[in-house]
Amino acid sequence: MLGTNGSMRQTTGLEEFQNKSPVADLPLPLAATAEFLLCKGYEIHGLIRRASTFNTDRIDHLYRDFHDPQARVYLHYGDLTVSGALTDLLQEIRPEEIYHLGAQSHVRVSFDMPEYTGDVTGLGTIRILEAIRKTGIATRFYQASSSEMYGAAPPPQSEATPFQPQSPYAAAKVYAYYCARNYRDAYKMFAANGILFNHESPRRGETFVTRKVTRAAARIKLGLQEKLYLGNLEAKRDWGFAGDYVEAMWLILQQERPDDYVIATGETHSVREFVEKVFARLDLDYKQHVEIDPRYFRPTEVDVLLGDAAKARRALGWQPKVGFDELIAMMVAADLEIAGKEKTLVDAGFTCSGRI
Ligand code: GDD
Q1: Superfamily the domain 209-234+269-303+325-347 falls into
Q2: From atom 37 of ligand 1, which residue's Cα is the shortest distance away?
Q3: C-alpha distance across the termini of the chain, in Å
Q4: What tens digit of pLDDT does each residue of 233-259 get?
Q5: Least confident of 96-100, 174-178, 303-307, 349-353
């Protein structure tokens, strides 16, 4: 166990390290959170679901075999759908802080798998809260609440804006949000909500729109694919950089009292604008490559998200450092590098997955 400034720090990023599966994308700021906490001197424990293949690639650069004396990241098998094991795990690890980022986090998929989404994203949260209550450990709990909870509520959205969820995922997140608040009031737990607006990075899962676009544009540029199929280009999102948002999550748990905070940039852009800028960066005209496929539309869409993070600025002293254009540049550069490696393989006669 490593310490920082003489004090031991332990955190359980419950489900931070959950395995990739056909139905659950990895929670977003996975590696960024782990990197940030390691820099702060934390020892990290993550929950991982058993799979028959290796699928921890986003944290492989942080992981060391547990025989290594320098190891500070530990993975434990478990699942948010099984409560007993969570209680045992908390009893054993006794973490000082819990960053609960685990979820079936894909909004479109939540319409295909509403029951599973409710179980993992909604009930999974109360299972952890109950595990904390039953073990009686003194820990600080961070609930990854989402701007999706605002749904149809008109922008700008702040902590005072009533939720109008528009998907099974958002409804499950609203449930989890109120569970955290309820356990704070009922049991005096340190349970805080970070209501994060969309946060992106080069490590974003490939099926979320920003990464889907940067990855495809880079592959199109290098001749590895021709077309990109998307859904609604008119939706608007408040997109920030995941690295900045991880710092906000940590700050939320360092406050004297638990509270709820919106974390956002205060700027909104349409999907179309994002696509246009990405392709233009690569000297491409998106209109020649992008086609609309209705299967990517959602039965109910969230039209505009635009966060008002005044409270976080005031109380946490937090503000985003990376702007929209810089975020695009970062993601395009990273995907261009990956596409370059893929092209080297293809040119040498190897086949790549071909998934677009
Ligand atoms: N994924 C996806 N794929 N989205 C598309 C596509 C497409 O082909 N075409 C258009 N979109 C639109 C969606 O309809 C949505 O309006 C917008 O792009 C953003 O979609 P996502 O990137 O999938 O993110 P999200 O806003 O639905 O949800 C993400 O952010 C939330 C925070 O507000 C997820 O990370 C959630 O887990 C998170 O809570």
Answers
A1: UDP-galactose 4-epimerase, domain 1 (3.90.25.10)
A2: 105
A3: 42
A4: 999 999 999 999 999 999 999 999 999
A5: 349-353
Residue 200 beta carbon below 6 angstroms from any ligand 1 atom? no
Average pLDDT over residues 90-100: 95
* 241, containing H or E segment: strand 240-241
Contacts of residue 163, defined as CB under 8 A and 6 or more positions apart, other chains included, come to 149, 150, 151, 153, 170, 174, 177
Task: For ligand 1, say whether the CB of 147 is within 6 Å of any of its atoms.
Answer: yes
Q: Exposure of 185 by Cβ count < 10 A (0-12 exposed, 13-18 middle, 19+ buried)? A: exposed
In angstroms, the Cα distances linking 81 to 12, 76, 87, 93, 170 are 17, 15, 12, 19, 18
Question: Do residues 192 and 255 touch, judged by C-beta distance below 8 A?
Answer: yes
CB 47 within 8 A of CB 16: yes
Q: Which of 105, 110, 145, 146 is catalytic?
A: 146
Work out the average pLDDT over 137-161: 98
DSSP code of residue 140: E
CATH topology of domain 3-198+238-263: Rossmann fold (3.40.50)
Q: What are the residue ranges spanned by the domains of the chain?
A: 3-198+238-263, 209-234+269-303+325-347
Q: Give pLDDT tens digits for 307-341.
A: 999 999 999 999 999 999 999 999 999 999 999 99
